[in-house]
Design brief:
Distance between the termini: 36 Å
Helix content: 25-40%
Strand order of the largest sheet: 5-4-3-8-9
Largest sheet: 5 strands, mixed
Radius of gyration: 16 Å
CATH topology: Glutaredoxin
Structural class: alpha/beta
Number of helices: 7
Order of helices and strands: HHEEHEHEHEHEEEEH
Number of domains: 1
Shape: globular
CATH superfamily: Glutaredoxin
CATH class: Alpha Beta
Strand content: 15-25%
Number of strands: 9
């Protein structure tokens, strides 16, 4: 699974790498320039989506991103990568809460066939009380994935126990500013919390 995750990450890096956005983000008028760990590639990342929450209610990005959010695309049947990444995100949220900063983790499934509203709700609740679990139709999931330039693909040889190849970035999204940065899975919860705090101290939203 780690090999698949690495391949997926490499594919996404190719999708979002090497554009003029890095230059833009490093301009002197970028409020958050000091908070970024490195180049942020790709064209515009993040934006509007319509998904379904754990109660089965349709929601948009405006309903979900009401506070600073750590957004992750994965699936509940994921054997190791997704639980570990989301646990890391939850730990970062707790560290930030100790600093008086209110951040929510958001989990968006890439496996709507198995991840019903109830399933994503239970997955999120087991990881953190603030975590929001989202699912939707295959078309809704694909649209949200395209907006965030993520990668995912179903492995066809697993029968009902199939696995998913997918990217593993976590995105920091602010209600007013939108997407501002992403975190790779090798970053610790402490490092993540430190960078998020920088963004919020510069001006959340």
């Amino acid at each position: 699974m780690r090999i698949y995750a690495a391949l997926a990450a490499a594919a996404v890096a190719g999708l979002i790498g090497g554009s003029a956005l890095y230059v833009y983000l490093r301009q002197s008028n970028d409020t958050f320039a000091d908070c970024r760990a490195g180049a942020v590639g790709g064209g515009d990342i993040g934006g509007a989506f319509t998904l379904v929450d754990s109660t089965g209610k349709p929601v948009t990005d405006k309903d979900v991103i009401t506070k600073p959010s750590l957004v992750y695309f994965g699936y509940t049947f994921c054997p190791d990568v997704c639980p570990l990444d989301n646990m890391r995100n939850a730990e970062a949220v707790d560290i930030l809460e100790e600093k008086g900063l209110d951040v929510q983790p958001v989990f968006i499934t890439i496996d709507p066939d198995r991840d019903t509203p109830q399933v994503v709700g239970e997955f999120a609740a087991n990881l953190h009380p603030k975590m929001i679990g989202l699912t939707g139709s295959p078309d809704q999931i694909k649209a949200a994935s395209l907006v965030y330039k993520t990668y995912y693909k179903k492995q066809e040889d697993g029968g009902e126990f199939y696995l998913m190849d997918h990217s593993t970035f976590t995105y920091l999204v602010l209600p007013k500013a939108g997407f501002v940065d992403f975190f790779r899975r090798d970053e610790t919860s402490e490092a993540m919390a430190g960078r998020v705090a920088c963004f919020l101290e510069k001006g959340a939203g």
